[in-house]
Design a protein that fits this description.
Structural class: alpha+beta
Strand order of the largest sheet: 1-2-5-3-4
Strand content: 15-25%
Radius of gyration: 15 Å
Largest sheet: 5 strands, mixed
Order of helices and strands: HEEHEHEE
Helix content: 25-40%
């Protein structure tokens, strides 16, 4: 078991199976030393635990927890092409989308769920640049979607 997966276990988390694509794309692709994930929804056992807009049907705290699930799914996608999460040299960028009620402006707080999870799991390697974007709707009426870009070590 990799050190990263041991850390996940210490946190009471399990790396899930890669979420199958919902359309014509790959969950993750590698280009040189970088891995880019597709947008990851907060799927758990093949379904969304909650749907709707943040600030309406979904609270900001619920959405923050969903963003953690998205980040965990993104790590699974990274592993699927990198082979081992210990090869992650650093998370370079996180982009998060929040399906938002028209008056909701707390997107950064929601995306902290993903950012904090990456920091808990990867330590300093999890520190990254980030964008948090409010949108009208996401696939399957998901409240949040997260994609990540990571740099791999050469070894």
């Amino acid at each position: 078991m990799s050190a990263v997966e041991s850390r996940l276990r210490e946190l009471g988390l399990t790396l899930p199976a890669v979420v199958p694509p919902l359309a014509a794309y790959q969950p993750a692709v590698r280009s040189g030393v970088y891995v880019y994930t597709a947008g990851q929804l907060p799927m758990v056992d093949g379904k969304l635990p909650v749907t709707g807009k943040v600030g309406a049907e979904v609270t900001a705290e619920e959405a923050k927890n969903l963003a953690r699930i998205c980040a965990l799914n993104a790590l699974a996608a990274v592993k699927s092409v990198a082979g081992d999460l210990d090869r992650v040299a650093r998370v370079v960028k996180v982009v998060g989308f929040v399906a938002s009620a028209s008056d909701f402006t707390g997107q950064p707080g929601v995306l902290n769920g993903a950012s904090e999870l990456l920091g808990e799991v990867l330590g300093d390697k999890g520190v990254h640049a980030r964008s948090a974007v409010g949108v009208a709707v996401l696939p399957l009426d998901a409240p949040v979607e997260v994609e990540i870009q990571v740099e791999l070590s050469e070894a």
